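Protocol step 4 of 6: structure prediction from sequence.
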Amino acid sequence: MAAASTLGLLRSRIAHCARLRPTLPCSPHRKAFASSTIHRIMELSGFSDEQLEVRAAVSKICENFPDEYWAEHDESGEYPHELHAALAKNGWIGIALPEDLGGSGLGICEATMMLQTISQSGAGMGGAQSMHANVYATQPVAKFATEEQKQAMLPKLIRGEWRTCFGVTEPNTGLETLKLKTQAVRDGDYYRISGQKIWITSAQVASKMILLARTTPLEEVKKPAEGLSLFFIDFDRSAPGLDLRRIKKMGGRAVDANEVFFDNYRVPADTLIGKEGQGFKIILHGMNAERCLLAGEAIGLGYAALEKASKYARERVVFGRPIGQNQGIQHPLAAAYMSLEAAKLATYHAARMYDNSGKDKSITQHAIGVACNSAKYLAAEAAFTACERAVSVILPITENYLELIVYKVLAHGGMGYAQEYHVERYMREVFVPRIAPVSKEMILNYIGEKVLDLPRSY
């Protein structure tokens, strides 16, 4: 798609989104604080027209899903079907998938902006994660599947008729992806899948799974990266050989996380993506994209928390002056803002490298890996700091006197602990980008080994 036609398509979507105002099930008693105008603090200079159009259009959709909607879904654990339907109706699920399949043909830069905007709207990690796998996990399929497979597998995902989950992590291997144990054994025109996956997002609502499984036993492979294969399978919860258990979790509860159990679960052989034994190399194409997307979601959540904190600090008056006039409040919030801005720059730099790597041969996979991992680390840490500083406590000492106990920052005070201000929900959710899909410690190991040329520490 030419840039002009892409921009025209986005603008037509904005006009369409502006007319959409669906009635959604949320509390009729909206808090004045939550519904009042929030000053958007993220600097937008330097973004492309396409990115800004994406931000504007997705923001219009997200206006229909206020904080109260997400608080209620976090409390009930109900999946945000309405958001998924609204985004699918306007074509956003296929933002980074090819046009000939029904997608928008845009890049990870624009997809990162979309997920950041969803998160920053107040949806947080829960809202963003409802879309997450449909964006990044489909990238290897779009790149390595046959034309016939792509036509059969992707258009219905883009239209929102199907949803997918991503099956990689296992309980006994964790981050050691090359030692995965779930097996796919060839049986004529089928494979039989046996094993267990864990922390599988959206498995309760997904009809498809992009699955990484072992087709050659580990002891028989010549190289550790061999022997794993990628499949795009039907995820039929009523079929024999498939069972799952929902995991109760701390945050992002609107989107389910699950243990999945396979016991000779039969899938057709033509669900194999690419060549047998090359699955790990194939999913690497999606892993770097995921780090960019998750970084965007994290900084969106950080900005949302900081916007609420700075608003509260402007409006909360103690001893005849706004608490934000005190440097003990103001300076930590300002530092958190600068960290978010730095993480934003790193995130979109990494996304641009990812998008441009196909046409710029000077961009190596090593450089992309370093940039994407660095962005994910910086974004997760910046978001955590912003959320922590938004939710920390001001303790009352006596009836007539408040002593400001500055631990990190005291923006919302005791009310930061209350659900009605939503920052406690942000705080619970901000742990996700610190630990998934790879922990901050493993990123530090990666940079130490691959960039600083230090001995492997684990």
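Step 5 (inspection) to follow. The two ends are 45 Å apart (CA to CA).
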